[in-house]
Amino acid sequence: AVEARLYAEDPSRDWSPQTGRLHRLAIPDGVRLDTGYTDGDDIGVHYDPMLAKVVAHAPTRAEAVRKLATALERAAIHGPVTNRDLLIRSLRHPEFTTARMDTGFYDRHLPALTAPSPDLHAPLAAACADAVGRSRSRFGGWRNVPSQPQVKRYAMAGEEHEVHYRHTRTGLEADGVRVVHADARLVVLEVDGVRRRFEVARYGDRLYVNTTALTALPRFPDPTTQHAPGSLLAPMPGTVVRVAEGLTTGAPVKAGEPLLWLEAMKMQHKITAPVTGTLTELRAVPGQQVEPGSLLAVVTET
């Protein structure tokens, strides 16, 4: 038997714990799932971020490892960022499959194991599902005039992606692929002669296309959401527990210098100056509760 522990944490960002609504947690049959969470539960800041233990049994270690990796890959996990991808890649890494790993495994391989690998067709699948789910008029999705390309924007793996598609008499069309089927929950695209299925789930502006998470963006960016260079944003929800002694607006700071500390899920996280310069804004105060993306301070480079 092999066990994997699923955590609401981001290994690529210093293992920072994640919070939010767990919309869905579903593991394929054939493995054991031990969890105290159900769909719709909120992951808070006051407890350990472990969501579940997943256990696979098989006659041999190699079979159990493959079975566990496949189950995690096919699982539906809709909610905060988790270590799911790290677990899958670790289970399939040659050092693990041949039982040659040691305590330095992540010291050597963590950057490669946590590198983003989103499905580049996920934004188009999301757009097709949205286009079908929201009929443009009571007459259907086509008109008796040439259709102009429709545009959708999504954030995926830290980057913006823009996709284009068209409504036609026979359905949706997009360059480079053939839209075989599209409804609000399932899109089938033919890519280079191969048909691929994309299961789509949407919760507000957040979408999950198979295992890829996306955020639907407005067609035109909101200028009020832009932050100045050198802005320090809260990487997670938590409490400001400390501000560096003597730190005030106008103080000089050096790149990497600790400025303040957040506490979440029984762990403290240090926020450092991104550049050498001057602290031009300080909004964080001890005891303050902050949400992800909250502006804590601004350092202007000199």
TrEMBL record:
Q: Does the record bear ATP-binding in its keywords?
A: yes
Among InterPro entries, the record links this protein to: Biotin_BS (IPR001882), Biotin_carboxylase_complex (IPR050856), Biotin_carboxylation_dom (IPR011764), Biotin_COase_C (IPR005482), Biotin_lipoyl (IPR000089), MCC_alpha_BT (IPR048429), Rudment_hybrid_motif (IPR011054), Single_hybrid_motif (IPR011053)
**Does this UniProt record's set of keywords contain Amino-acid biosynthesis?**
no
| Matching SUPFAM superfamilies | Rudiment single hybrid motif, Single hybrid motif
Domain Lipoyl-binding, by residue range, is 223-300
Pfam families attached to this UniProt entry: Biotin_carb_C, Biotin_lipoyl, BT_MCC_alpha
Q: Where is the Biotin carboxylation domain?
A: 1-111
For this chain, one GO molecular function annotation is: ATP binding
Q: Which UniProt keywords apply?
A: ATP-binding, Biotin, Ligase, Nucleotide-binding
Q: State what protein this is by name.
A: Acetyl/propionyl CoA carboxylase
